[in-house]
Amino acid sequence: MENKVLIFGHKNPDTDSICSSLVKEKLNKKMGKENCVAVRLGKINKETKYVLNYLKIKEPELIEVIKEGQEVILIDHNEFNQSADGIEKAKILEVVDHHRISNFETSEPLYYTAKPFGCTSTILFEEYKKNEVQISEEEAILMASSIMSDTLLLKSPTTTDHDKKALEELEKVAGINLKEYGLEMLKAGTDLNDFTVEELISLDAKSLDKDGTKFIIAQVNTVNISEVLKRQEELERAIEKEIKEKELKLFVFAITDILNSNSEIIALGEKADIIEKAFGKKLDNNRAFLEGVVSRKKQLLPNIDKNI
Ligand code: MG
Ligand code: MG
Ligand code: MG
Question: Taking residues 253-282, what's their average pLDDT?
Answer without folding.
Answer: 96
